[in-house]
User: What shape does this take?
Amino acid sequence: MSRDTPPRRGRATLNRVTARLPVFPLGTVLFPGLVLPLHIFEERYRALVRHLVGLPEGAPREFGVVAIQAGWEVALGAERAGREVTLHEVGCTAELRQVTELADGGFDIVTVGRRRFRIAGVDEAAAPYLTAEVEWLPEPAGTDEVADLLAARVISVFRQYLGLVRPDPQEISEQLPEDPTVLSHLVAATAALTVADRQRLLAIDDTAARLRAELRLLNRETALLRHVRAVPVPLNELAGPPTPN
Assistant: This one.
């Protein structure tokens, strides 16, 4: 491809820019464009919200959301005790859109995912909350025929999946985005996937590759849902512990 050829959507650009971000460890994965409401009750994160609200007009009010690698309950207890928690390498910034201050000094906030990043280093001493040196991950630009074709297939399979998890047809009648990148983020955040599955999807730079991975996951989940509905299972089996098989 010559230098004058515009980049294709789904192909990551290679410019690497770093920044320092406040970091909020969570037991979930945030994707660009998705809404994330949060209840802020710990003092260190109250301080983070106060810092963001106090920024000059026009300054980006965002922090990094990074999923915790260990089990959420274990990691949350470790963080509250001041012990180190293990974070995933790739996260997504959350832009502060709405803040409601509560009588006890906490906050209810609404954020929207914006930009993916990779953590280069974490600083636990620079502020009451974690901060990190991050590298912005490239986002696709231009057009990509492969991603367009995959997006159509993902929409079809995703509607079948929704039909199995949402019996009410009115719940699946909403218009799905046609842009392949936006669609890939919506599917990753909406489907009932594990944190590990979502994290792997977030870390994929190429839209077409993310859509291919989602096709595999959706086909897997759809097949499992159909199998469970097709095979009657006694209630006493559902209530018992899982077998080694």
Remarks:
- Residues 207-230 form the longest helix (24 residues).
- The first strand starts at residue 18 and ends at 26.
- The domain at 145-230 is CATH 1.20.58.1480 (Methane Monooxygenase Hydroxylase; Chain G, domain 1).
- Strands lie at 18-26, 35-40, 62-67, 90-101, 107-123, 131-136.
